[in-house]
């Protein structure tokens, strides 16, 4: 499912956005749910913190009696770098402020310059993109954990605590599983590369077998690569 979240406090523009969305999703086979907000509130906050679904945000930058669209976008990017953000505004001078403040904005649309057409075109492009929404899901009596596979860089075993540490783009999580147990919960992109390490092959840029390390697409170098597992790592 894809959720489109519209944050706009002017009814006329809400209607324009609604019509553009209807045209853009007409040929989309995936289930789409649209929710409208006029301001930031607890319900919007719940959506922002839910990382189990694909989301597209369409937001006015200036909102009466509420925090701005830019501040809402900053909240989104605190824990979500995947959802698309489209800004709409009446002021073209806000363009530079937006791009200096928010990481990865899909588009900046002026309300008075073919807004409906541009919004429809943007949505069609976004909806055609492949979205990898497979997740690692783990629960115990203390917490529930859901992480997109694509966000996991590697997983290693801690010596002292005998727990696995899942390293993602933005955080680290400890789980009480063994290497064998966690491999059963992952898909084929994950391979054991060391007696105490699993890699996400999609995130590795280079394998340095001679020096026993791999280099991630984040530029991080990890010294946990063993020739013993080379055949397994390189197999399809």
In short:
This protein is α/β, with parallel strands linked by helices. The protein has helices at 11-24, 42-49, 69-79, 95-101, 115-128, 179-183, 230-234, and strands at 2-7, 32-37, 54-60, 84-89, 107-110, 135-139, 144-148, 152-157, 164-168, 172-175, 190-194, 197-200, 204-208, 213-216, 221-222.
Question: What attributes does this structure have?
Answer:
five-stranded antiparallel sheet; alpha/beta; 15 strands; single chain; 236 residues
Describe this structure in words.
This protein has 7 helices and 15 strands. With 236 residues, the chain is of the alpha/beta class. It has helices at 11-24, 42-49, 69-79, 95-101, 115-128, 179-183, 230-234, and strands at 2-7, 32-37, 54-60, 84-89, 107-110, 135-139, 144-148, 152-157, 164-168, 172-175, 190-194, 197-200, 204-208, 213-216, 221-222. The strands form 4 sheets. A 5-stranded parallel β-sheet has the order 2-1-3-4-5, with helices on one face. A 5-stranded antiparallel β-sheet has the order 10-9-8-12-11. It is 27% helix and 31% strand. It is elongated and about 65 Å long.
Oligomer classification: single chain
How many strands, what sense, and barrel or not for the largest sheet? Answer: 5 strands, parallel
Average pLDDT, rounded to a whole number, is: 88
Silhouette = elongated
Q: Helix/strand/pairing class, anyone?
A: alpha/beta
Q: Total number of helical segments?
A: 7
What is the H/E order? EHEHEHEHEHEEEEEHEEEEEH
Rounded radius of gyration (Å) = 21 Å
Helix content: 25-40%
């Amino acid at each position: 499912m894809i959720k489109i979240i519209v944050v706009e406090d002017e009814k006329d523009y809400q209607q324009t956005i609604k019509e553009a969305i209807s045209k853009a999703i007409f040929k989309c086979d995936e289930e789409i749910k649209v929710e409208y907000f006029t301001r930031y509130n607890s319900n919007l906050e719940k959506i922002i913190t839910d990382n189990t679904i694909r989301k597209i945000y369409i937001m006015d930058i200036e909102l009466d009696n509420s925090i701005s669209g830019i501040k809402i976008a900053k909240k989104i990017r605190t824990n979500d770098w995947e959802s698309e953000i489209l800004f709409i505004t009446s002021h073209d001078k806000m363009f530079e402020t937006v791009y200096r403040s928010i990481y990865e904005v899909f588009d900046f649309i002026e309300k008075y310059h073919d807004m409906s057409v541009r919004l429809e075109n943007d949505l069609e492009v976004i909806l055609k993109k492949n979205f990898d929404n497979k997740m690692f899901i783990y629960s115990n009596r203390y917490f529930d954990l859901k992480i997109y596979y694509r966000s996991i860089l590697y997983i290693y075993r801690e010596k002292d605590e005998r727990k696995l540490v899942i390293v993602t783009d933005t955080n680290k999580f400890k789980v009480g599983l063994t290497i064998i147990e966690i491999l059963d919960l992952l898909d084929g992109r994950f391979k054991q590369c060391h007696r105490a390490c699993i890699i996400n092959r999609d995130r590795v840029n280079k394998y340095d077998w001679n020096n026993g390390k791999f280099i991630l697409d984040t530029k991080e170098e990890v010294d946990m690569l063993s020739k013993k597992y080379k055949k397994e790592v390189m197999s399809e």
